[in-house]
Here is the input.
Amino acid sequence: MNFNSSVFFLFLFIVVLVNWLLPQRSRFWFLAGASLFFIGWHNIESFFAVILFSLFNYFIAKRVSGKRALYISSVSINAAAILLFNFFSESIFGFIFSVSSVSFHVEKFIIALGLSFYSLQNISYLTEVYYKRMRPEKNIFRFTLYNSFFPKIISGPVMFPKEFLPQIDNTVVTKEKLVSGFQRLLLGLLKKMVIADRLAPAVSSIFDHSNEYSGLTTLVASYLFTIQLYFDFSGYTDMALGIGRMLGYELKENFNLPFRSASVSDYWRRWHISLISWFTTYVFYPVAYRLRSLKKMAAVIGLSLTFFVSVIWHGIGITFFAWAICHAIYLSIEVFTKRYRQDLSEKINDKLFKCVGVFIVFNAVCFSNIFFRSDSIGRAFELIKNEFSDFIPGDWLRDFIAPLAVGGHQLDKFNFFSTIILLLVFLLFERKINRISESVSFNVKYVVACILLIMTFGIFDSGTRFIYMQF
Amino acid sequence: MQERLQEVFRKVFGNDKLVITESTSAKDIKMWDSLTHLELITAVETEFNIRFSFTEVMEFNTVGDMMHAIREKI
Here is the structure.
């Protein structure tokens, strides 16, 4: 049940309506049940996996406070689930299992156990209880709602227990929340269906046929992939936040205008914020704190280890490893040049310094994302090599416009260029558009514009998944 | 104590005019991120010759929280 499928909208309509009609004290039972139904609709193995792991973490948490051995072993089991998820979802182990007679469903069950966003929240819960920063939850349905709330189970945002659990007893569904949530949901749909999905064929045509293109075309494709990833994932987040609000919950923001970052550390405070704050809290700080006598090297070691864990979380593969190395290097350089950059910013024009910073950071991120998107390390190096050869296309129509505009397959030049215009409008006026979508009063012009754009330019293909659903 | 702490902040953030109050938090100082936070903790520990526990460090949300923890140790 994808967020942009018609069956999901029917499910959503019923859940929002019933939740609104129910008294406050009964809502969490209903939403926990609706979330399990949502997971079970995806596949029955996931349903049983989530129930099993919810029971496991719920009962372990009741005894884990201050008990080191139990804490380490239970966190290891949750972490092992993420590792198994990554191995079984794309490695040869998946193949081995798929050829044995009973295996197919077993494999799906194991994959489901490691639903990565779900597992991170379980680890967070166990850690908070172990360090006595919170008491274990007394009601299993409230705990299940925390780790399985359907708007956030597939791709986040990752919430800390203290951010979500207190909301359960205070959910208020008002007309304003329904309006604002619906407008945010529309924004997400627009970003996903009109921009991200329309950029996808252009990006694929160049990344998947890397030997056919070079120079400017490859460079633009690497820019477009980063923009596609942003609109796909931030679109998903807008939808998750909008749905959460319609049900009375405020989920955590995941993005804050990341393409306006003037440093890579600033970028990581604006991109996938909820995941980064999880990694900072549970990986970076514990490591860097213990090594703090090493001063700046403590930060470098902490960063490297954080990105190493991030690689395991994203998917064990050499391309993700290369992506992580890029960011560990960028951030390490920033650690050692921080004072120098600060002095430089005071000496030259502040706006100019920021513009140059934004340009460098955007290019550095796009460069690292070549590894993130490529299906093999060889392909990534070929793309990078091609970027620096024959920079100006010989035949603009054949080598530049055709692959980008028609995606190699689709005859929809007009739609592609309208997408470029729309994404530029979005990037330039993003703050204003976000403010309108957050408005608590019904904005007829905004809603009509969104619906018209989606109906005219949206890609209605229920098979299109969100990129981050694979993690 | 606040003056000594302010000097540490000025040195770590490289800003001689920085003024801190008990309510000052990471949101008020542009350069105060997770990397600088670590540098700040080490500098404060050296200045006051104390050691913070990991749990204390994780719960510092404002300068006031930090001052409270320092007062308990000196």
User: Anything to note?
Assistant: Chain B touches chain A at residues 14, 31, 33-36, 38-39, 41-42, 54-55, 57-58 (CB under 8 Å). The longest helix of chain B spans residues 34-48. The mean pLDDT of chain B is 87. The domain at 2-73 of chain B is CATH 1.10.1200.10 (Non-ribosomal Peptide Synthetase Peptidyl Carrier Protein; Chain A).
